[in-house]
Structure formats: C-alpha cells, structure tokens
Design brief:
Distance between the termini: 81 Å
Shape: globular
Helix content: 10-25%
Radius of gyration: 22 Å
Number of domains: 1
Number of helices: 5
CATH architecture: Clam
Structural class: alpha+beta
CATH class: Mainly Beta
CATH superfamily: Lipoprotein localisation LolA/LolB/LppX
Largest sheet: 12 strands, mixed
Strand order of the largest sheet: 7-8-9-10-11-1-2-3-4-5-6-12
Number of strands: 12
Order of helices and strands: HHHEEEEEEHEEEEEHE
Length: 207
C-alpha cells in the first residue's frame, strides 16, 4: 500500500510540473498568433444584435492583403484589398466595384487582429474548466481597467494542441461578439480578386 501511495504522490507531483497558469497559456497563445502576419490566417467574426439578428463574416489575411465574405439574408458581399486598390462584390447587384484604397484607414480585418492581440489586458483571468482538447478561460474586467468600452466579461477558449484560440466571446450593451474558427495559413489566391471567378458580373473601375 505504501508503494502505491508513493507512486500516486509522484504522479501528482509530475502532473503539477506540467500544469499551466492562465498567464502561461495566454503567453503561448500570443506566440502562436504572431505567425498570423507572415503566414496569413483566417477567422470567423460573428455579431449578434437584438431584433436585427446575427451577421457573420469570414476574414482571410496575408500581409497587406485581405478578403472578407459576409452573407446577409442570402446576399453575398465580398471585399478585397491589396493596400492600393479595393474590390467590392455584391451578389444582389451582380457587380464588382473597384476603388482606390485609403491607406490611412485601418481595415476591419486589422482591427480584428488587434482585438485578439492582448485580448486579456485589463482583465483578471481564471481557468473555468479544461478538457483533453482545450482550456476554457473566464476573463473578468479588472477594477483598475479604465476603459469604459471594454466588456465586463469575456469567454476565451484555447486549443491544447495548437495553442490557438478556438473562440473569443463577449457582450456589450446587448450586442454579442464572437471570434472563432482561427486557422494559420493563407495563399495569394485566397486574398486576391480573380475576375475569372465571377463570369457575367459587371466590373466597374472607379480608380
């Protein structure tokens, strides 16, 4: 019996060595999301608004280029940019409008990345639960956080296999924001407008 108790204690001690704190988990997540820039990435951005319903956008980025796809009541809206020009497609109008990009304005995609980077700054983070696949963290706004626009609470789920976020969910003034389905890796074709993909669509160049 003593040998069994000793073995059990040793196993507990070994498990403690591999246990990770919320700060360690988030630091590793930040390391992985640093790859978003050079390798590109994709994610799904969902906004749930009372009465109006839910709108979702898929964002794919690679360097200065990005593509956004939004489906609204059966109508597909797509937007591309390479930092110099922008392409906007509306399936309802069956047209693509090309305009000159405004480099001084940050894209929604870039804003999304900034929201993810340092997402727990100003929050007290605790592990709510964990499974073999993920950590489930609860982020509560710190009393010392002066930003009135920060939500009081966020739910952050991080993959144990990749250390990438599985989802980030928060609510503010009745609006629920969820970012999920993060994946590293994008190609030029993923973020570049190709007229061959839109046969029969009118292309209007306003540059």
């Amino acid at each position: 019996m003593k040998k069994i108790i000793t073995l059990f204690a040793a196993l507990l001690a070994a498990a403690a060595l591999f246990a990770q704190t919320p700060d360690e988990i988030i630091a590793r997540m930040d390391q992985e999301t640093d790859r978003f820039g050079p390798e590109g990435f994709s994610m799904y951005f969902e906004l749930k608004i009372p009465i109006l319903g839910t709108a979702g956008t898929t964002v794919t980025m690679l360097g200065d280029k990005y593509k956004m796809v939004t489906d609204v009541k059966g109508n597909s809206l797509m937007h591309w940019t390479d930092g110099q020009s922008e392409w906007g497609y509306d399936s309802g109008k069956k047209e693509v409008v090309i305009t000159t990009a405004k480099p001084s304005e940050e894209s929604q995609a870039e804003n999304n990345v900034k929201m993810l980077k340092g997402v727990t700054d100003g929050y007290d983070v605790k592990i709510k639960k964990e499974t073999d696949e993920a950590w489930y963290l609860v982020c509560t706004k710190s009393r010392t956080n002066p930003n009135k626009d920060d939500p009081k609470k966020m739910e952050l789920t991080i993959s144990k296999s990749t250390y990438l976020p599985i989802s980030v969910k928060s609510s503010l003034k009745g609006v629920t924001l969820t970012m999920r389905d993060f994946a590293i890796g994008a190609t030029e074709a993923d973020v570049t407008f190709n007229p061959a993909d839109f046969p029969g669509v009118q292309i209007i160049d306003k540059r």
